[in-house]
Prior knowledge:
The structure holds two protein chains of two kinds. Chain A has helices at 2-26, 31-39, 41-51, 57-79, 84-106, 114-118, 140-158, 160-168, 170-175, 180-202, 204-221, 225-250, 254-272, 278-295, and strands at 129-132, 135-139. By secondary structure, chain A is mostly helical. Chain A has a two-stranded antiparallel ribbon with strand order 1-2. The N and C termini of chain A lie far apart (67 Å). Chain B folds into two domains: 6-225, Rossmann fold (3-Layer(aba) Sandwich), CATH 3.40.50.300; 226-265, no CATH class. In chain B, 35% of the residues lie in helices and 22% in strands. Chain B has a six-stranded mixed β-sheet, sandwiched between helices. A three-stranded antiparallel β-sheet of chain B has the order 2-1-4, with helices on one face. In chain B, helix 5 (113-125) packs across helix 6 and helix 6 runs parallel beside helix 7. At the A-B interface, helix 8, helix 9 and helix 12 of A face helix 4 of B.
Amino acid sequence: MSTFWIVLTGALVASACSIVGCFLVLRKMAMIGDAISHAVLPGIVIAFLIGGSRDSLLMLLGAAAIGLLAVFLIQWFHQSGVPSDASIGVVFTALFAAGVVLVSMYTRDIDLDLDCVLYGEIAYVPWNTLQIAGVDIGPKAVWGVGLALLLSVVLIAAFYKQFKICSFDPAMAAAVGIPVALFHYLLMGLVSVSTVASFESVGAILVVGMLVVPPATAYLLTEKLGRMIVYSVLIGCASSVIGYFAASMLDASIAGSMISIAGGIFLIALLFSPSHGVVLRKIKQKQMVRQASIAE
Amino acid sequence: MHKSPLSIHGLSVAYQKKPVLRDITFEVPEGNLIGIVGPNGAGKSTLIKAALGLIPRLHGEVTIYGKPYAKQRKLVGYVPQRESVDWDFPTNALDVVMMGRYGHLGWIKRPGSAEKKLALECLAKVGMADYAGRQISQLSGGQQQRIFLARALAQDATLYVMDEPFVGVDAATEKAIITLLNELKTQGKTVLVVHHDLATVKEYFDWVMLLNVRLVAFGPTEPTFTAQKLQETYGGRLTMLDRESPSALIVNGRSSDVDGSIHLA
């Protein structure tokens, strides 16, 4: 049973992250996910200090709020003339450091440390279960990530055309009256929620990896946005399943194996994709050269 | 009372304290093809973006047919600069043209068969019917520009605002675009075009606006587009091959303006 829960959690994280990740990759903001996953630390600590436990919804909301604050600060610094990569770097390291200070100030008295906040371990997912009226309803992580995934799916399905045009041509979107800033922050809010819901239980490496690698792979395989999202979910889920069994065979880190598999799939797509693949392009070029020489 | 398609009063715009546009006032006459020319950094694109509320303005009032832009969005079709978007975005030509309908669809409604039909018609009008399913990165610069134009047509507007539609396009596309613009004019629509090629101004436009941070001149092309006013606009930086003949200046204007620089006198 624990195998089932771990694979399911991995697949849910992969789906939640890769859906929002597609839009990040297309907006050339892939590293925003990395930034958010670190910047939320002070939010988690503050929410923990207010709520007093690690289970609360409050923690998720606190983290999501700080995630949005980080995005807002990055945007603001960039608009004030700081290059965008530098503003991402400044904001997330500063917020993360503030979180580290907070944790170190209070860890003496309470049960919260950096390991369990940032480097959650997917192998422990099946034992951290949720109980309603004494009935065990499955791992907490499955419910948390599942709800985050549901939220993303519902919002992106409802406002698909807005998310699409805001990613492709924000000037045009603004000109026809679509509130571009609202959808920007809505997307960033979804990234925050998906990231936070995922990483406490499965670890930051899995989250950041799933935000970027499956979408980047899908980008190489299709030329339609809708398909890119579906492919990246499938690639993410496949990486989770294969990664889990690879990890149990090798007796290695589960999250690490999942992302390594995703990286491997990316490499295969980069080399052999029918449309963008390096190998096929070379073969086509050779054929063209040969045809040209025959024609002469 | 008859309302002007676009009326701007006392418009000023600044980027980080540096004024880009200063105290611009004009009223666009309906049913004309209007060219906006001026040197690099004159604020041509900024004028358009400020008029459409895409960038904040310091002062000034903008009205579209007598009302603020926010209430008149559906009457305006906007064609941004081609380089402003990522042409590697995973989508095809038809899909981009359908985006022209998004503003009309409102919050929830999805583009359906009616939108698809209209988009195909618009693609046909720009001579791109055969490319509907083509991935946009596989189109040439001229074809991409036509897609943008088709998208503006799909907006079914009465005032069109275009930012440098002739940049980097082939001769056939340039001809197709200007034919289309004239067709829009005969339908009584108003078209504002940011233009970089001084050589074709007289041939293409009924009215011309000379802009360099301030509004230098605005009026019917024949009396407005003169050597003297151009010198005023370009700050004496145009080389005059023959001071008596404006065409000599224009020939030079084309050769130098293609790479975006102006010969220093």
